[in-house]
Amino acid sequence: MRPPIRIAAGGVLALLLCAASAAHAEPTRCKATIVRNAAKFLQSTATALANCERDIVLGRLPSSTDCRSEPRAATTIAKAADRMRAKIAGACGGVDQTCGTPDGDDAPGAIGWGAVCPNFENGACSMTIAHCGDVVDCLQCIEGAAVDQAASLFYDGFTPSAASSDVNRCQREIGRSAIAFMRSKAQALANCWTSVNLGRATAPCPVPGDGKAANAIAKAEARKLANICHACGGGDGRCDGVGDLTAAAIGFAPSCPAVTVPGGASCAGGIATLQDIVDCVDCVAEFKVDCADRAAAPWGAGYPGECNLGMPATTPTRTSTPATTPTRTPTPTGGAVTATPTRTATPTRTPTPTPTSTVIIIDPCGNGVVDGGEDCDPAGGAATSCQAVSNTSAAFTCNASTCQCACPTKVTFAGDPNDPVSILDTGWTGISHRAPIISNGQVTLTLGGCASMSRPCGVCSVSGPIENPNANAGQIASRRCTDDTSIQCANNTPCTAGGGTCQFFFGAPLPLAAGGVTTCVVNQFNGAISGTANIETGDAVTTANLTARVYNGIAIDNPCPRCVGDGAFNDGTAGGTCDGGARAGLACDANGDIPSRSDFGRTSLDCPPAAAGIIATLPIDLSNKTDVVAKTLTTSSPNCTGAAGNKCLCDTCNNTAATPCSTNADCVAVGATQCGGRRCLGGTNNGAPCTTATQCPGMGTACARPGEPTRPAACLDNTAANGNPNRVFECVDGNADGEGECTNGPTDQNCSLASGHAQRGCLGDGDCGGGGGSCQVFPRGCFLTGGGTFQPAGTMDGTNSLLAVGMADAPTNDVSQPTLGAVFCVGPTGSSSINNVAGLPGPGRVTIRGSASGAP
Question: What is the pLDDT of residues 395-408, one digit of tens each?
Answer without folding.
Answer: 999 999 999 999 99
